[in-house]
């Protein structure tokens, strides 16, 4: 929702005469799949009412309808101007809609003691009621509708604030309850609190209908907020809390979607924050208690990542995946000067409840803004995987809008759209088609989910129903070879003897809710792709194409047999003759349909709608008609690749050469048996004899399901060479492979077995046709260690009097924080590591220097061992401890970017040098570490290291590791040991130590200006899956504090 328009089988036979080709097809073009456009139902709303701004499929105990929001509709509410409305519309009859009255009253009024009159205390005019709609998954009729621009007055009637409000309807849209959590504090809140929260800008209801989630992006200087309201207990209201000033203008709550992200079977919530994370945008995941779980950030500043979110199981693993829209994404590297094409991201939830890589779909039109609406619309084609709809309301050739359908699959979403629907296909008047979307419910009873699309600028909403998908099983049966040297077995009309064979075509169909009878037309093409055909039908001499119509009953198989002849004289006797059969449903000959089904079925266009098979021509086999090839094989890893490092982005490549020094070889096959966990990517021919074609397929591996025919753990690449592979020919090609770390059976070596054979008897021994080779397997993680002192310099008073007893920690001296970040540059995952921090606690005479106040604060997968802190039992200032500030960080969701914690900046005598000033209505005590880093490093966080030193073979770092006290120098140091857990590539751990500079020691020592340093050393211990590094890897960093002497 936005605040306006400016803000989308072949069974291989080695010796048999017959070869069966089995093709399973979910049976026109890839841009017109199973949403039916010809029977679309379009509803037209009041002109200028923004009818279609939101759409919602509504199911109330099996009674199905469509709810449409019109946020500028004029209603019968007294004195309310264009307050907005919701309409309930038919799913089958265009224009049949009626208003659902959630609130019949005009402005609410109360007695004003200042004027002694009854006056309105709110304003419902232009409140945009219907701009947000949501419902629970359960078919119990729970619907929430919001008015984010609703205005509430202060108690003295002088202040007016857009707090927003929502209504929740139950009991079949007959019972209504209002929720406006920001309104309770209106009158004294203001935009710096909750006065401008615009509650209901987004909304979601838990799947069981128990809780109502409301986004309020205008709270706290537009940081944004999320509220969670129990629908059974009014007092049960939860909400997120205010974050640091760096989170201002982030718009948390811009979008919301309910999902399950922890494995506890309790509903969680995904919340869009499109201006967060330095304007790159983010989606923040909370559990049901609004505790931060995980954050996902965008990739481009200003893309509005998180503008729209949706949740669904896209890859069929029973885990909720996340769909995120970034409608202002622009590819600045493109050369077409286009902007705001938009992008949609799909993040996949893993069994660990983390989220893996994102698949992306980028818009195709300049300013089309793909991703302004996204919806997980259920399984549109009933293939077992959830599908996605994404809107580009300004896309299309005329800019009137596009909706794209992306199909899910076992490996994730198919990023090429299965269907692209332009507004012009449905009517010339449609505009902003794709602004809103709703799906996931079968609205016409054919078992396939349907989709509803809103187009608010033209005041329209469109119901698109899904067509049943026909699954065709097709078989081709014919000989694998034909020997032209044998006497022909057929006679043509002119008396010529030619070679003939029988081509059998078998067809049957099935599918969910498909008609009991269908007419399927099969077009058979002989020697397809050839300009001069070499095969013809005997019944129609000289004809190489024929259409046959099969009138079939569901699950009934039909067969057609044709005699095919090959003429005696033609030029090309080397290349195989390809027979092809193409299929289509004849819509006009559908014999019967289910009673409620008014739309025709369709073949699944995600897969091929044709089947083919080739017959090879036998030749050069001598008088005995038996060829004896002499195949030789060489295979191994590509030049220069002597090992493979886990996690590297470059593919693993295998170079293969096959040669034939004997007679023609038929059905020549190359096999490369892969280790488990290694997948096949592609094949590329790199040389060899011209016209020797190589085609490769993969059987087994992680990307294909295991079946009985795969014989358990089989993982093999199979390449068909030549057909025939003639005397003296060579084939050179490279195989590209991709190891999957989590699935590898690690023994530090990848073992490969390569073989080549044919259906012919061989003259050379088998050792010439088999190669065994291995590739060492290693892991490597490069660590970057960076640090900063906050502040980098302090002043201390050399002649000030030290109190006899410290009232609190501020009298000890200036506060000093040292922050260390350990970052894994990859490519491999580090499983375990350790950090040792050498901290200058005392002088050699045990005079305190940097006095540790509390245990180290750790962000990330690490834990520090306890060390002695605050031994003098100094009183710790309230709200200054790291633990108290920790809850603030969690509540605002800053785990993806290091957001340093707040703390005091000065003492009674000591003062930080170069500290930033507070802004707006903030007090100086609320300054964060980020404020200091802005001054010192001119950047808002320490994600980008200012310098890094990788000391893999450094004797200095290793000596410091083994004898840290010696590395301490003239100080008496505290050694702090922190154990790091799993750290994947591009992940980091941050360790913060808070202390006070003990000024009294400096006065006694009578030092001038000086600096004091802490040192951190990190060691990689074990890498991914327990592999130890090839050599000890260390990284170190020194953080220094400059102390400037002053006097009274």
Automatic annotation (TrEMBL):
InterPro entries: FG-GAP, Int_alpha_beta-p, Integrin_alpha, Integrin_alpha_Ig-like_1, Integrin_alpha_Ig-like_2, Integrin_alpha_Ig-like_3, Integrin_alpha_N, Integrin_dom_sf. Transmembrane segments: none annotated. It is found in: Membrane. It is a single-pass type I membrane protein. FG-GAP repeats lie at residues 37-98, 115-178, 183-237, 238-290, 291-356, 357-415, 419-481. Residues 1-32 form the signal peptide. Keywords: Cell adhesion, Glycoprotein, Integrin, Membrane, Receptor, Repeat, Signal, Transmembrane, Transmembrane helix. Residues 898-920 are annotated as: Disordered. GO terms for molecular function: integrin binding. Residues 910-920 have a biased composition (Low complexity). Residues 466-617 form the Integrin alpha first immunoglubulin-like domain. Residues 621-767 form the Integrin alpha second immunoglobulin-like domain. Residues 898-909 have a biased composition (Polar residues). Residues 783-1042 form the Integrin alpha third immunoglobulin-like domain. Pfam families: FG-GAP, Integrin_A_Ig_1, Integrin_A_Ig_2, Integrin_A_Ig_3. GO terms for cellular component: external side of plasma membrane; integrin complex. One of its GO terms (biological process) is cell-cell adhesion. Belongs to the integrin alpha chain family. This is Uncharacterized protein.
């Amino acid at each position: 929702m936005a605040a306006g328009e400016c803000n989308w089988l072949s069974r291989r036979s080695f010796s048999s005469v017959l070869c069966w080709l089995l093709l399973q097809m979910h049976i026109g073009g890839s841009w017109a799949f199973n949403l039916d456009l010809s029977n679309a139902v379009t509803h037209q709303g009041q002109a200028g009412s923004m009818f279609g701004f939101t759409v919602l499929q509504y199911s109330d105990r099996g009674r199905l309808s469509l709810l449409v929001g019109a946020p500028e509709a004029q209603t019968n509410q007294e004195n309310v101007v264009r307050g907005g409305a919701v309409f309930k519309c038919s799913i089958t009859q265009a224009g049949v809609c009626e208003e659902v009255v959630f609130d019949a009253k005009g402005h609410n009024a109360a007695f004003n003691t200042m004027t002694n009159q009854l006056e309105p205390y709110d304003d419902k005019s232009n409140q945009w009621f219907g701009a947000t709609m949501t419902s629970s998954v359960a078919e119990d009729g729970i619907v929430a509708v919001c008015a984010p621009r609703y205005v509430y007055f202060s108690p003295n009637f002088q202040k007016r604030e857009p707090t927003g409000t929502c209504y929740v309807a139950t009991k079949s849209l007959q019972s209504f309850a209002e929720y406006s959590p920001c309104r309770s504090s209106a009158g004294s809140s203001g935009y710096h609190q909750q006065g401008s929260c615009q509650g209901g800008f987004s909304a979601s209801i838990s799947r069981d209908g128990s809780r109502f989630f409301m986004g309020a992006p205008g709270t706290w200087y537009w940081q944004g907020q999320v509220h969670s309201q129990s629908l059974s207990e009014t007092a049960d209201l939860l909400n997120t809390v205010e974050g640091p000033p760096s989170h201002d203008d982030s718009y948390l709550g811009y979008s919301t979607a309910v999902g399950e992200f922890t494995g506890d079977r309790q509903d969680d919530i995904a919340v869009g924050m499109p201006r967060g994370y330095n304007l790159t945008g983010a989606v923040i995941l909370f559990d049901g208690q609004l505790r931060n779980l995980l954050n996902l950030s965008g990739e481009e500043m200003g893309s509005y990542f998180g503008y729209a979110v949706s949740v669904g199981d896209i890859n069929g693993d029973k885990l909720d995946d996340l769909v995120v829209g970034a409608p202002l994404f622009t590819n600045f590297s493109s050369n077409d000067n286009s902007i705001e094409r938009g992008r949609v991201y799909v993040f996949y939830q893993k069994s660990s409840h983390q989220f893996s890589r994102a698949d992306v779909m980028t818009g195709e039109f300049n300013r089309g803004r793909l991703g302004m609406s996204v919806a997980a619309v259920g399984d549109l084609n009933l293939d077992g995987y959830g599908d996605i709809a994404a809107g580009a309301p300004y896309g299309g050739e005329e800019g009137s809008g596009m909706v794209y359908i992306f199909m899910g699959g076992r490996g994730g979403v198919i990023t090429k759209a299965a269907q692209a629907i332009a507004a012009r296909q449905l009517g010339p008047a449609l505009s902003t088609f794709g602004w809103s979307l709703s799906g996931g419910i079968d609205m016409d009873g054919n078992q396939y989910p349907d989709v509803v699309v809103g187009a608010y600028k033209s005041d329209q909403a469109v119901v698109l129903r899904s067509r049943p998908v026909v699954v065709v099983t097709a078989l081709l049966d014919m000989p694998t070879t034909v020997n032209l040297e044998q006497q022909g077995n057929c006679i043509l009309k002119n008396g010529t003897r030619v070679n003939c064979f029988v081509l059998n075509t078998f067809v049957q169909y099935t599918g969910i809710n498909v008609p009991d009878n269908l007419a399927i037309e099969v077009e058979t093409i002989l020697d397809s792709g050839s300009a001069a055909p070499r095969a013809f039908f005997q019944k129609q001499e000289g004809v190489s194409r024929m259409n046959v119509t099969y009138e079939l009953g569901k699950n009934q198989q039909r067969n057609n047999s044709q005699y095919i002849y090959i003429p005696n004289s033609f030029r090309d006797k080397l290349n195989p003759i390809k027979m092809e059969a193409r299929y289509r449903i004849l819509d006009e000959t559908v014999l019967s349909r289910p009673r409620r089904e008014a739309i025709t079925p369709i073949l699944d266009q995600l897969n091929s709608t044709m089947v083919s098979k080739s017959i090879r021509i036998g030749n050069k086999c001598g008088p005995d008609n038996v060829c004896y090839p002499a195949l030789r094989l060489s295979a191994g890893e590509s030049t220069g690749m002597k090992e493979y490092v886990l996690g590297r982005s470059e593919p693993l490549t295998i170079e293969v050469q096959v040669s034939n020094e004997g007679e023609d070889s038929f059905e020549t096959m190359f096999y490369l048996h892969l280790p488990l966990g290694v997948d096949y990517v592609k094949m590329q021919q790199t040389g060899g004899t011209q016209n020797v074609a190589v085609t490769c397929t993969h059987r087994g591996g992680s990307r294909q399901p295991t079946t009985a025919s795969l014989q358990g753990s089989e993982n093999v690449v199979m390449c068909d060479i030549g057909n025939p592979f003639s005397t003296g020919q060579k084939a050179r090609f490279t195989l590209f492979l991709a190891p999957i770390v989590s699935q590898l059976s690690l023994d530090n070596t990848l073992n490969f077995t390569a073989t080549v054979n044919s259906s012919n008897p061989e003259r050379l021994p088998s050792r010439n046709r088999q190669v065994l080779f291995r590739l060492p397997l290693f892991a490597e993680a490069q660590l970057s260690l960076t640090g900063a002192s906050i502040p980098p310099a302090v002043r201390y008073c050399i002649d000030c009097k030290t109190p006899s007893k410290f009232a609190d920690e501020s009298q000890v001296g200036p506060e000093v924080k040292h922050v260390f970040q350990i970052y894994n540059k990859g490519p491999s995952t580090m499983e375990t590591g350790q950090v040792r921090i050498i901290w200058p606690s005392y002088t050699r005479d045990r005079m305190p220097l940097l006095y540790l106040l509390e245990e180290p604060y750790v962000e990330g997968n690490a834990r520090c061992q306890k060390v002695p802190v605050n031994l003098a039992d100094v009183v710790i200032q309230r709200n200054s401890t790291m633990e108290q500030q920790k809850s603030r960080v969690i509540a605002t969701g800053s785990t993806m970017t290091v957001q340093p914690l707040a703390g005091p900046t000065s003492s009674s005598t000591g003062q930080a040098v170069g500290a930033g000033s507070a802004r707006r209505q903030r007090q100086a005590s609320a300054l964060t570490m980020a404020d200091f880093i802005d001054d010192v490093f001119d950047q808002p966080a320490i994600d980008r290291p200012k310098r890094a030193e990788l000391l893999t073979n450094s004797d200095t770092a290793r000596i410091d590791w083994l004898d840290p006290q010696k590395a301490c120098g003239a100080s008496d140091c505290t050694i702090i040991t922190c154990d790091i857990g799993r750290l994947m590539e591009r992940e980091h751990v941050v360790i913060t130590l808070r202390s006070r500079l003990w000024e009294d020691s400096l006065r006694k020592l009578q030092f001038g200006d000086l600096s004091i340093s802490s040192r951190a050393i990190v060691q990689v211990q074990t890498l991914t899956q327990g592999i130890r590094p090839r050599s000890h890897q260390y990284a170190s960093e020194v953080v220094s504090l400059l102390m400037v002497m002053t006097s009274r």
